[in-house]
Structures are given as structure tokens and as C-alpha cells.
Amino acid sequence: MSTYHGWNVIKLPVLKHPGNFSTPTMSNCMLHEGMSGHIVASLNWFLVGFLYIVSAMRRYYTTKLAGQKFVSSVEFPFDFLPGRLHNLPFVALYKIFGILVFISVETIGTLLLKSGCVATSFWQHGTMAMIFLLSGVVDIILLKSKDIKYFPDGTDYLLFGVNFGVQALQFVYHLEGRTPLSARLHGFQAFLAAMCALALAVEAQFRHNAMMPIMRGYFIMMQGTWMMHLMFILYHPGTEKRTWDEDAFESVELASMMFMYHMTFDLLLILVVNLVFAKVYSGTQYKALPHTEKYGQCIIIYDGF
């Protein structure tokens, strides 16, 4: 015990993080694990969101031509595939496969660490991945169960919405102790996850509106593009030199502006996809031809799309 201006001073030991958890001194294995995890997660989000958008647009145009009412669903089975692949739950299967790859990358990266302990982020990512995987499993069960209903209607929306709610909370609590730039980047990711949960909640109430699943896919897809950009900013692959000052106010402003660019780019991508569908379904092979009163309308659908 020592004294300071007449006061007794007690020195307490301070528990410090291992050096490889500090961003400036991040080890190569930690850097590789962080980049790999971000790449896999961003690709999963982008592809799942994009496939939802394409599938929703295809169902909208086909039901419109057939004179039927559009009904949304979390999973859009590939009903255009022949034989035993008909109604293949491709997106649900990809959700499961993509998450298993993500968990494998995270686990391998954690085992390679030489610190002797497991980072908190590993458990955070594992929690989000587990619910995402369960969502894919429930999608398949609801699609394939015909005679027996194992889950009530709307379970797929509930579970998928809870998944993004958990993501939003995880990203919010992920901001503790981060630099201003890193906090802003992850804050936008939390915002997107919350918007995904909100979009699913609204879609569950308005399942006859084709814009609802498209909006859901938009926010999921944007999670992917923004996560990829976040990875490039924080991990600066290809160079060991920092390209962003994470404490500078200008960096925070610039990153915020780039987020608006992502919003615009992903929206333009949706518009381009819609233009392609509108062009394809405006062809003569998709025209509704008048027939006799006995048969009503004869709808010719191009076999193979």
C-alpha cells in the first residue's frame, strides 16, 4: 500500500484481454477468422435476400397471368423444377447449408487462436446462427407436411422474425467499447436486422401484397452488401496498413454516406430484376388467350421457366 497526498492507495490487478483480441495487434489467425466469418455471413444474407426477391416476383407474375390471388410465404419452393425436384425448398436448404459453413468457419478460426480462450463474439455468432438454422428446418417441415400439421400457421414467420430480432439485439450489445466508426458500422447492421424483423411482422399480416416479401428480401440482401463493406473497412484485406481512422468524425460521416449508397444500389438491383420479369412475361408465349365460355381463359405458360 502506498500513499498519495495523504490518501492510502491500494493497487488492484487489472485483467487485460489477450493481445490478439486488440484490433491494432490482431494476430493473423484472428484476422483470417474475422474476415472469413464476415464473408460467409454476407454471402448468405445477400443470396437469401436476392432469392426471396426473385421468387416473390416470379410468383406475382405467374399468379397474375393465371388470374389467381397472390399469397406470400417465407419459403418459395422451386415449383418449376421437373420430377422429384418439383417444389424443392432451395432457399431453406441453402439457409441450413450456409449456416453450417459459417459455424464451421467460426469454429475452425476459434480453434486456431493461441490465446487459450474463446472470444465472446464466437458465442454471439453461434446464437444468431442457431436460430437462422432452425428457421430453415421449420420452413422445410411446413412445406413438406401435408397430412399432419406439425406447427401452426405463421410459425415460419414467427421464428424468422425472432431470428432477426435476436440479430438486432446482438449487434446493439456488440457496440460496447468499440471505436466511433466501428460502432456506427455495426449500428447500421442492427438497424437492418430490426427492419427485417419488422418487414416479416408486416408481411405476416398482409400476405396478399407482393411488395411485402420483396421488402423483406431487400433488407436481408442489404445486410449482405453492408456486411461485406463493413469487413473491408475494419479488416482492410490486402494490406496491413490501416486505411480508415476509426476515431475520426470524418470517417463516421463517410461511412454513413456509404450506407445510403447501399440503400440506393440494392433498390436499383430490385428494379432491374423487375424489369427483366416484366419483359419476359410480356412475351407472346405468356399472353392470356380468350377461349370458349366452357373453358374460360386459357393461360399459356412457357414450359421451362
Give helix % range: 55-70%
Assembly status:
single chain
User: Quick one: how many beta strands?
Assistant: 4
Mind describing the biggest β-sheet? 2 strands, antiparallel
Q: Average pLDDT, to the nearest integer?
A: 81
Instruction: Work out the helix count.
Output: 7
What share of the residues does DSSP label as strand, in percent? Answer: under 5%
What general form does the structure show?
Answer: globular
User: How many domains make up the coordinates?
Assistant: 1
Structural class: mainly alpha
Written description of the protein model:
By secondary structure, the chain is mainly alpha-helical. The protein has one domain (about 25-300). The chain has seven helices and four strands; from the N terminus they run ββαααααααββ. It has helices at about 30-65, 90-110, 120-145, 155-175, 180-205, 210-235, 250-280; strands at about 1-5, 5-10, 290, 295-300. It has a two-stranded antiparallel sheet with strand order 1-2. Strands 3-4 form a two-stranded antiparallel ribbon. The radius of gyration is 24 Å and the shape is globular. It is found in: Membrane. It holds the Pfam family DUF716. This is Transmembrane protein 45B.
